[in-house]
Amino acid sequence: MTKLKSKLESILGKDRIKKNFNLSPYLTLRTETTAEYYLEAETRQDLINAKKISLKLKLPLFILGGGSNLAILKKKLTGLVVRNKYIDKKIKKKNGNILLTISSGYPVSKLAKELADQGYEGLEYNYGLPGTIGGALYMNSKWIKPLSYTGDNLISANLVGKKGKIKVVDRSYFKFSYDQSILQKTKEILLEAVFKLKKTAPQITKQHTDFAMKYRKQTQPFGVFTSGCFFKNINGKSAGKLIDQTGLKGKRVGKFHVSDKHANFIIHDGNGNPADLEKLLQLIKAEVKKQFGVKLEEEVIVI
Ligand SMILES: Cc1cc2nc3c(=O)[nH]c(=O)nc-3n(C[C@H](O)[C@H](O)[C@H](O)COP(=O)(O)OP(=O)(O)OC[C@H]3O[C@@H](n4cnc5c(N)ncnc54)[C@H](O)[C@@H]3O)c2cc1C
User: Fold this and answer.
1) Where in the sequence numbering do the catalytic residues fall?
2) What is the pLDDT of residues 60-119, one digit of tens each?
3) 227 Cβ inside 6 Å of ligand 1
4) CA-closest candidate to residue 144, choices 204, 220, 77, 75
5) Which residues cross the membrane (predicted)?
6) Does the C-beta of 130 come closer than 6 Å to ligand 1?
7) Could you give the CA distance from residue 71 to residue 63 in angstroms, rounded to a whole number?
């Protein structure tokens, strides 16, 4: 056993660290990459300990949620990759509303469905959104019909700060906007989020989840390797429409292609060469710039 692995295990638990671990199954785009060191976090303490030991050993730390907004092109992520499987949910009723405390590893879509079934309103349009609460608040993930963001009904959150200390922050701390939250700058770890939700009739919230899923199925490719919309909309202009109008739907480089159904979705057939994805991204950007004078920016985090 390497020295570093045993140092990590002395804090994170015996036999819990995997070396040179294949991350591909945990990335919705399924690019091939490995983690130098890998841990599955099951509890908040695992996340806290991972931060503390990574600081002590000066190891880079990467928190992986559902891996649905990532295009990892590097062959290897150095340091410690922690896949967040911390699952916990508490609901308190207060003055006709509910206060939901939810762990960062909780799958968003599952949560949206569970809440909608109870008539708890505020997160139901996240039904069908892949990934975890941590990833959704890091990105302030959005829904377009009606325009809403995961951060909208957040009240407060518990974070692991830069130095490994726990801090409690309110919504304003996150500086939420389109595809933005402060976590992208601070790299603090979300432990739990507290949302205030309204109680309404379950028929209403269920209508919303049904609509969200139906709309996704109508407009997005399903059952494929993808990381969703690759580029951000620019000043309200849909990146997907711009790409569509360039005529690039179906354009292929190696094992990556632009979806025929939704031009902002890039699909991977599997075992693709990351250089081909980069070529396809450059081609899309160049064509949109040439035809519309618009500079596209990646929404997906490219590493
Ligand atoms: C089919 C499909 C449909 C999609 N539809 C939408 C959509 O409708 N709207 C939308 O906005 N996006 C959409 N996406 C993109 C993606 O699902 C969202 O951005 C999602 O919220 C990312 O969550 P994740 O857990 O997968 O994050 P990951 O991809 O695992 O991580 C994203 C970033 O968040 C950070 N992170 C994750 N957890 C934590 C934590 N606990 N603390 C701190 N940082 C953390 C990671 O380090 C990483 O930098 C879609 C993707 C796919 C594949």
Assistant:
1) 229, 299
2) 999 999 999 999 999 999 999 999 999 999 999 988 899 999 999 999 999 999 999 999
3) yes
4) 220
5) none
6) yes
7) 14
Indicate whether this model's pTM tops 0.90: yes
CA distance 32 to 210: 34
Number of Cα atoms under 13 Å in the Cβ half of residue 135: 29
Buried b (16+ CB within 10 A) or exposed e, 215-244: ebeeebeeebbbbbbbbbbeeeebbbebbe
Query: How far apart are the CA of 141 and the centre of ligand 1, in A?
Result: 7
Q: What share of the chain is helix, strand, coil (3-state, %, to 5)?
A: 35, 30, 35
Nearest Cα residue to atom 23 of ligand 1: 135
Q: State which H helix or E strand residue 8 sits in.
A: helix 3-12
**Pairing assessment for the beta strands 147-149 and 189-199 based on DSSP bridges:** unpaired
- Does the Cβ of 112 fall within 6 Å of ligand 1? no
